[in-house]
Design a protein that fits this description.
four-stranded mixed beta sheet, 86 residues, alpha+beta, 6 strands
């Protein structure tokens, strides 16, 4: 079983999952998006500095893992984020 299949299996069998996208350039700064099966895609706040966006993403990942155990999947690339959302 490859990593993507394992992640999809994890997502199907859990009560609450969150997928955290990578930090991307947006109009006015930098942001990351999150996706949950319950709420769909949530566009993130746009930060003026890339360091602030990375810090906020790390906080989101840590907070989600504490709240939902290990059902948070941080993505490194847009392709990975899109594949897991589908």
């Amino acid at each position: 079983m490859d990593g993507l299949t394992a992640m999809r299996t994890l997502l199907k069998g859990t009560a609450m999952q969150i997928i955290v996208g990578p930090v991307l350039t947006r109009k006015g700064g930098y942001a990351f998006d999150c996706w949950t099966p319950e709420e769909g895609l949530s566009c993130g706040y746009t930060y003026g500095r890339i360091e602030d966006a990375h810090y906020a993403r790390k906080v989101e990942i840590r907070y989600s893992k504490k709240r939902d155990s290990d059902h948070t999947i941080p993505c490194s690339t847009v392709d990975e984020f899109v594949r897991l959302m589908i």
